[in-house]
């Protein structure tokens, strides 16, 4: 079954994972792409085409609608669904697509294990985050994937680009050695200050991470 994960999240929302096994024609026969989507799809190449289609099929099945909602992009390129109060975020890696939908600001990332991620750590982690990494090599590798996924999720939730992974985002220490858990994160850039609850879990050889905005404090500004 391509829909390999689909469940509700707290306080309100859903996440899902689609295992990409179908050819393009299978998706195209079900999605009924509208003109803006068809134009976008036409410009895609290679594996990206299947990932693009799978993400839209996943969101549609998660929605439970008879008629699929049109995927749109705002002025910053952040995706949203036409005529839906829910915010969405999508991600894909190798043979999986992931999605989240909720009334709050959200972001999601799914990532296949990449052993070389250690070499990139200083590009996306600040000094405090580096200091709190585990010393055990296996646990350290897992934490690096969680932190990368957390920052990708925050980047998507923010949705306005030009966000520095080291300077504008911070992730709290990962406690314990379990393969699933929660951690807090924040985005701080100029007047934008937002706290997020971040959930992570291991899914086979993938790491799934998603961020949900916490209620704004009285001094926060949009």
UniProtKB/TrEMBL annotation:
The keyword Transferase applies. One of its GO terms (cellular component) is cytosol. Belongs to the P-Pant transferase superfamily. Gsp/Sfp/HetI/AcpT family. GO terms for biological process: lysine biosynthetic process via aminoadipic acid. It comes from Phaeodactylibacter xiamenensis. InterPro entries: 4-PPantetheinyl_Trfase_dom, 4-PPantetheinyl_Trfase_dom_sf, P-Pant_transferase_sf. This is 4'-phosphopantetheinyl transferase domain-containing protein. It holds the Pfam family ACPS. The lineage of its organism: Bacteria, Pseudomonadati, Bacteroidota, Saprospiria, Saprospirales. The keyword Transferase applies. Keywords: Transferase. GO terms for molecular function: holo-[acyl-carrier-protein] synthase activity; magnesium ion binding. Residues 106-195 form the 4'-phosphopantetheinyl transferase domain.
């Amino acid at each position: 079954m391509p829909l390999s994960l689909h469940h509700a999240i707290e306080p309100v929302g859903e996440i899902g994972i689609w295992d990409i096994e179908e050819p393009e024609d299978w998706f195209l026969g079900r999605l009924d792409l509208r003109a803006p989507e068809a134009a976008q799809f036409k410009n895609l190449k290679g594996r990206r085409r299947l990932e693009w289609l799978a993400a839209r099929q996943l969101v549609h099945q998660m929605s439970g609608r008879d008629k699929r909602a049109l995927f749109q992009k705002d002025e910053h390129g952040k995706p949203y669904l036409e005529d839906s109060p829910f915010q969405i975020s999508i991600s894909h890696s190798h043979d999986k697509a992931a999605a989240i939908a909720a009334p709050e600001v959200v972001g999601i990332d799914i990532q296949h294990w990449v052993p070389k991620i250690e070499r990139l750590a200083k590009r996306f982690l600040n000094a405090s985050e580096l200091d709190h990494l585990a010393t055990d090599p296996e646990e350290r590798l897992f934490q690096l994937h969680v932190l990368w996924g957390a920052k990708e999720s925050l980047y998507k939730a923010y949705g306005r680009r030009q966000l520095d992974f080291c300077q504008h985002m911070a992730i709290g220490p990962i406690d314990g050695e379990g393969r699933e858990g929660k951690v807090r994160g924040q985005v701080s850039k100029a007047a934008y200050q937002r706290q997020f609850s971040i959930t992570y879990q291991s899914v086979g050889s993938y790491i799934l991470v998603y961020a949900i905005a916490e209620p704004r404090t009285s001094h926060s500004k949009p």
